[in-house]
Amino acid sequence: MKNIFLTLASMFCCLAGCTAQSDKYTSLDVAEFEKVAANDNIVLLDVRTAMEYREGHLPGAVNADVLRDDFLAQASLLLPKENAVALYCRSGKRSKKAAQILSDNGYKVTELSTGYNGWTQAGKEVSKQEVDVFTTDNGSLVRIYCIKHGTLRMSVGGKWIYVDPVTDKVPPVTDFSTLPKADLILLTHEHPDHLDAKAISQLTKQDTKLITNRRCSDMLGGKGQVMKNGDSATIGEWNIEAVPAYNTSKGKEQFHPKGRDNGFVLTIDGFRIYIAGDTEDIDEMKDIADIDVAFLPCNQPFTMTPEQVAKATKTIHPKVLFPYHYGNTDIRQVRTLLKDSSTDVRIRQYQ
User: Fold this and answer.
1) What span, in angstroms and rounded, lies between the C-alpha atoms of 91 and 291?
2) Which ranges constitute the DSSP H helices of the chain?
3) What are the structural domains, with CATH classification, of the chain?
4) Of 172, 143, 138, residue with least CA distance to 159
């Protein structure tokens, strides 16, 4: 980690020779900023408002509004101090304020002098996918990208993981052929908002690993490594546990029968992610421990009510909760129900 940090620091110092530099942070033009932002160990930060961010941002950027009174606290949740930060605003004014605040608080910072406007005017790529960044025990960055509903993707160390990729069964239509190929695909169950052969085909390369339950494998012509509740597997440096996911409410059991579908606990260098799949707040959740990030579904009659999600969260005690698969549910209820909890509830566009 020390070598990584020294390398990044050297990069900034070299770039400073052809760009502006304050006492504590470096200002770069678009061409040089693009080189820095491409480094997998850099955290890219958009300091504009949430609305501006949703309308379009640099690919892979997280968001914290520098004009909010709680900007530093917000940024501290998103930014590991072990990693350098590359940030930008609309035109370059707010980013300098943010760079000063963060550098004063121990972050190694560079900022885009011409902002998002300069980036787009240069014809550079932009995205609308929300991103969250986390750090593993050895300092690697795990980036989690919100796609939609029950679909998400993650990157770590240049490798890509997809969960329940779906093209057009859930809006908006997603063309996975435009995204990086998958190193690992996890399928929780066979419903069409979770299993999509077209998406799998678009994401598959020669060495892609596909993990699924028996029913999905059968529907895909025998493809994939089948896991059942209680199984575990190791894919490279990642550990995968298949855990139960089913309905318990009277009259709803047929949607997700006990023993058929999987949730997954994915461990990446000690960093544990629980992807619940379609489930209710089942008894087996008490055995799921040491979770850093949890994805819990919230759309009765098929999964959980907000009250059940709150109960499940208090059982699992994740550090961060992403309610997902929530359809038309007023998902703000979950945040209200957990307002006194130590869990950081993050609402993303997982309708």
Assistant:
1) 39
2) 2-16, 30-37, 50-55, 71-78, 93-104, 115-121, 197-203, 214-219, 306-316, 332-337
3) 26-122 (3.40.250.10), 131-345 (3.60.15.10)
4) 143
pTM value is 0.90
Structure tokens at 301: 């009659």
- CA–CA separation, 122 and 309 (whole Å): 44
Residue segments in the chain with a per-residue pLDDT below the cut of 50: 1-18
Task: State how far the alpha carbon of 276 is from the alpha carbons of 18, 163, 204, 266, 339, in Å.
Answer: 49, 11, 23, 11, 22
C-alpha closest to that of 270 among 242, 243, 290, 286: 290
Tens-digit pLDDT profile for residues 148-198: 999 999 999 999 999 999 999 999 999 999 999 999 999 999 999 999 999
CA angle (250 as vertex; 245, 255 as ends), nearest 5: 45
How deeply is 119 buried, as exposed, middle or buried, from its count of CB atoms within 10 A (0-12, 13-18, 19+)? Answer: buried
